[in-house]
Amino acid sequence: MVQKKGTKTISQIIINIIFIVIALCCVVPLFYILAASFTDEMSLAKEGYHLLPTKFSLEAFKYVFKNPAQILNAYVVTIVVTVGGTLLSLLCTSMLAYVMARKDYKFRNVLSFLVFFTLLFNGGMVASYIVNTQYYNLKDTIFAMILPYIIMPWHVFLMNGFFKDTPMALIEAAKIDGASEAYIFFKIVAPISKPAFATIGLFTAFTYWNDWWLSMLYINENKLTSLQYYLYRIMNNIEFLRSSMAAGVSVDLSQIPGETARMALCVVAVGPMLIVFPFFQKYFVKGITVGSVKG
Domain locations in the chain? Predict the structure, then answer.
């Protein structure tokens, strides 16, 4: 049955409106957060949230950046962890997924089961803490924030779906030409799997950037504190001071922002990733689309 042109136009308009509404639901809260971070604390408490600051103020950011050297160091640590961890994770994840996707590897089903098993069961926090601190001696080292996330099973299976679509004829032809397995992977398979690497890389980068848990568990030295954990400590300090005032302790809260500081912390934490994301967006969308239809 042929669809009329007018009906098709109306349906497209309705679909566009729906997606515009969904996009606004995602974007508008970000503008509220940004506006609140630049709003005076008393003004925010009295008048609530607005898309534009009702009374412009930088006090929240001044409080967050009260110790610029420490927060700069936290940024550097987090960037090093994110970049180094993402690259190392991509290398290990892709090689494991590639081996699982090779139909000529007789142990690939056993390997797939072992990876899948870790999705269902794990040793728990106590066991991992003992292994990382007592056996690997990762306490107060930057590797404590990198190694635990090197291989994530879900990422392995997602990348495995990409590699399964690689024609075996291409690999066999390379073998006939005398190419080694390393050459095949790095020079043939990896270049044609850029969407997969971009997708998994973005997921992994988000994981490393947003993590504060590993820093809290394994890091005691201030020079190795990650950005997220540093911001978490700032928020805890604000809550502690407010609870002290509620308990009757004399604390001057006039110079300590509350809600505006929360919003400023959100801006400081997610700002860099919002800048990076558009550069990977085309690969990310293509990777998710292609990976969803691969077996």
Answer: 58-292
Helix (H, G, I), strand (E, B) or coil at 56: strand
Yes or no: say if 189 and 167 are a contact pair by the CB < 8 Å rule. Answer: no
Residue 184 tokens, joined: 């095949």
Angle, helix 194-210 to helix 68-101, in steps of 10 degrees? 140
Q: What is the C-alpha to C-alpha distance for residues 226 and 253, in angstroms, rounded to an integer? A: 27
Reduced to 3 states, what is the DSSP secondary structure of residue 111?
A: helix
Dist. CA 83–CA 85, nearest whole Å: 6
Give me the helices (H) in the chain, please: 5-37, 41-47, 59-64, 68-101, 108-120, 124-130, 153-163, 168-176, 181-183, 194-210, 213-218, 227-246, 259-292
Helices 259-292 + 227-246 axis angle, to 10: 140
Entry pTM: 0.79
Structural contact between residues 128 and 148, judged by C-beta atoms closer than 8 angstroms: yes
**In angstroms, rounded to a whole number, what is the distance separating the alpha carbons of residues 95 and 181?**
11
Residues 6+ apart with CB under 8 A from 215: 145, 224, 225, 226, 228, 229
Give the chain's radius of gyration (CA, Å).
Answer: 25
Using one digit for the tens of pLDDT, what is the confidence trace for 251-282?
555 556 677 777 888 888 887 777 777 766 66
Beta strands in 214-259 (DSSP E): none
* pLDDT value at residue 1: 45
Give the Cα separation of 153 and 116 in Å (integer). 7
66 φψ region: left (φ > 0), alpha (ψ -120 to 50), beta (else): alpha
Structural domain 58-292, CATH architecture: Orthogonal Bundle (1.10)
Q: Answer with the residue of higher pLDDT: 67 or 140.
A: 140
Give the other-Cβ count within 10 Å of 120's Cβ.
Answer: 7
Tell me 39's DSSP state: B
Q: Are 290 and 195 in contact (CB under 8 A)?
A: yes
